[in-house]
Design goal:
The protein is α/β, with parallel strands linked by helices. It has helices at 17-23, 37-40, 48-56, 74-83, 125-128, 130-138, 157-176, 181-185, 190-195; strands at 4-8, 32-36, 60-66, 101-108, 142-143, 147-150. It has a single domain (4-177), classed as Rossmann fold (3-Layer(aba) Sandwich). It has 9 helices and 6 strands; from the N terminus they run βαβααβαβααββααα.
Length: 203
């Protein structure tokens, strides 16, 4: 069984209907640890040793956050800067995260169509997440495409429920080891993998 660490960062979590739904009861799943960074570190004083212990005791890491100004909220960036130290996460003898799986779970107000070449935001989600991908690569981790919930302001309760079901199914598959990394790398979003024959969830 794999253990999953969700590194959640949202400075206005109480106002996010989508993220509250995605994370509802998530900690009740065996093998899942929810690390709410803004709840844990309201003063931004990150306990680096605590975070390293969490990372080493989990096989799968999730950066879960809204896409704020085409990046992550400030505390998650600070977490990356402080916790992923040279000599520990990368560089000489920095092998403590080697071969761990990591990916982003993001929410965006804009729909999938506006994140494209020629679209309103000009670039794809993958391009906006390149710094995360390169960070994972530097740390010798296995980086997967993101799971994304987009057009959040347009979601009906039924559509939101579908996304919640997909996310929780993804967690179950990752915990059980019921996934093919190479197949997952071929899709734009892990949502697509779940909706494919490989992911075994039918639209």
């Amino acid at each position: 069984m794999n253990k999953i660490l969700i590194l959640f960062a949202h400075p206005r979590f109480e106002k996010s209907k989508t993220n509250r739904a995605l994370l509802h009861n998530v900690e009740q799943r065996q093998g899942v640890t929810l690390n709410d960074l803004y709840e844990q570190y309201p003063d931004f004083n990150i306990d680096v040793d605590r975070e390293k212990e969490l990372l080493t005791s989990h096989q799968i890491i999730i950066w879960h956050h809204p896409l704020y100004m085409y990046s992550a909220p400030a505390l998650l960036k600070q977490w990356i800067d402080l916790v992923l130290e040279y000599g520990w996460a990368h560089g000489k003898d920095g092998n403590f995260l080697k071969s761990k799986i990591i990916f982003n779970v993001i929410t965006t107000g804009g729909t999938r169509e506006v994140y494209a070449l020629g679209g309103y935001n000009r670039y794809t989600i993958k391009e906006f997440l390149f710094p995360f991908e390169q960070t994972a690569t530097l740390c010798k981790m296995v980086y997967l495409p993101p799971f994304a919930v987009q057009g959040t302001h347009l979601l009906t309760d039924e559509k939101l429920k579908d996304h919640v079901t997909m996310y929780h199914t993804l967690l179950e598959k990752m915990i059980a080891g019921d996934f093919d990394i190479e197949a997952m790398k071929k899709v734009e979003f892990l949502n697509d993998w779940l909706l494919s024959g490989t992911g075994l969830i039918k639209p």
